[in-house]
């Protein structure tokens, strides 16, 4: 340990881990029948997964990705709305040592293609469509436009989210439910070195070409769980709602940080202010204990008046996005945090 080279070799030999194991499979062993993920789409139709179900889905998708030729170190694009499927893909990538590249679900074709090309993405997972403010967003069509300028992509896996027709290219595009249908869900998570690449998170591109930051399995897990455990005070059995997207860093932050602590995530697809009380109703109905919001969202909600919902389950509110100004901060403190 007296030289950096020797220390690095020793750490590489002993620091074996897998984020999917730490965030999903361990809870499937310890609390298999507890809720792990809840989906709250704009049009209702609540759906939930237990830890055992989530673990099984992660393993099956990991097996399917291997059959599509994805190996350790390969880049996998995630172009999905906020739903449990986003967490399944994220952890399936970690399960086999692939590198995930989350892309904001509201981007147009050029923004999607620039990230796919920069990361040399091999496989992309998307939805046929999603809903935002009551309108159907044709995500597969947007992705097809992007793929015209992303030659590295070999396969597209499509989740039948909205059940609508969408173009499918033979030999390239496959349906999610079909490729996992015959997978046993028995694959063990690959134990990788702590410095194994895990995630490429891109900036929004507002200051020039989008910049991708590479995170590794050990560093991301340690850093994010330190925040969720000691700053947000998350514990097993807590319930988390963060108004974000997998394409922003707080999406992976939630999927890794909350689940590593054993907390249940409520995935809110679509616009948080689709109705004036949508966020507050989810907090009440799902008994949310940690709420994540941005100052911009709070400013948008203030004109609709005080929350007309039972927020007594909340124990902490986490904020991100930009600096606060006094008025919205005081409103959040008084009318939400109590």
If you had to describe this structure to a student in words, what would you say it looks like?
The chain is an alpha/beta fold. The protein has helices at 4-14, 19-30, 51-67, 84-96, 109-118, 139-147, 176-179, 217-230, 250-260, 278-286, 295-301, 326-335, and strands at 16-17, 35-40, 47-50, 75-79, 99-102, 123-127, 130-132, 135-137, 155-159, 173-175, 192-193, 197-202, 212-216, 239-242, 264-268, 290-293, 316-319. The strands form 5 sheets. A 6-stranded mixed β-sheet has the order 3-2-15-14-16-17, with helices on both faces. Strands 5-4-6-9-10 form a 5-stranded parallel β-sheet, with helices on both faces. Helix 2 crosses helix 3 (51-67), helix 3 crosses helix 4 and helix 5 (109-118) crosses helix 6 (139-147).
Mean pLDDT rating: 94
Give me the number of helical elements.
Answer: 12
Q: SS-based structural class?
A: alpha/beta
Strands, count: 17
Distance between the termini: 51 Å
Low-confidence stretches: none
Helical content stands at 25-40%
Q: Give the H and E element order.
A: HEHEEHEHEHEEEHEEHEEEHEHEHEHEH
Specify the biggest β-sheet: 6 strands, mixed
- Strand fraction: 15-25%
Walk across the major sheet and give the strand order.
3-2-15-14-16-17
Which term fits the overall shape? globular
Q: From the alpha-carbon coordinates, what is the Rg to the nearest angstrom?
A: 20 Å
């Amino acid at each position: 340990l007296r030289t950096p080279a020797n220390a690095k070799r020793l750490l590489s030999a002993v620091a074996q881990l897998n984020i999917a194991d730490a965030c999903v499979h361990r809870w499937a062993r310890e609390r298999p029948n507890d809720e792990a993920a809840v989906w709250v789409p704009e049009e209702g139709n609540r759906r939930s997964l237990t830890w055992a179900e989530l673990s099984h889905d992660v393993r099956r998708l990991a097996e399917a990705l291997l059959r599509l030729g994805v190996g350790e170190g390969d880049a996998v694009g995630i172009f999905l709305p906020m739903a449990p499927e986003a967490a399944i893909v994220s952890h399936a990538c970690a399960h086999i040592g692939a590198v995930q590249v989350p892309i904001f679900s509201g981007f147009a074709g050029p923004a999607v293609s620039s990230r796919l090309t920069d990361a040399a993405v091999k496989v992309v997972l998307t939805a046929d469509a999603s809903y935002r403010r009551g309108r159907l967003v044709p995500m597969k069509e947007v992705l097809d436009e992007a793929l015209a300028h992303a030659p590295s992509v070999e396969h597209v896996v499509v989740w039948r989210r909205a059940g609508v027709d969408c173009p499918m290219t033979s030999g390239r595009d496959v349906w999610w439910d079909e490729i996992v249908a015959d997978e046993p869900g028995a694959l063990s998570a690959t134990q990788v070195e702590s410095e194994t690449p895990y995630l490429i998170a891109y900036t929004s591109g507002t200051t020039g070409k989008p910049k991708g930051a590479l995170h590794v399995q050990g560093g991301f897990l340690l850093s994010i769980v330190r925040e969720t455990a000691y700053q947000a005070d998350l514990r097993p059995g807590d319930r988390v709602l963060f108004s974000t997207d997998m394409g922003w860093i707080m999406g992976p932050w939630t999927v890794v940080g909350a689940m590593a602590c054993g907390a249940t995530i409520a995935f809110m697809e679509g616009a948080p202010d689709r109705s004036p009380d949508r966020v507050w109703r989810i907090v009440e109905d799902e008994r949310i204990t940690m709420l994540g919001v941005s100052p911009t969202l709070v400013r948008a909600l203030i004109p609709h008046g005080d929350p007309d919902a039972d927020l007594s389950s909340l124990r902490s509110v986490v904020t991100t996005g930009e600096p606060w100004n006094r008025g919205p901060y005081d409103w959040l403190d008084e009318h939400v945090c109590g």
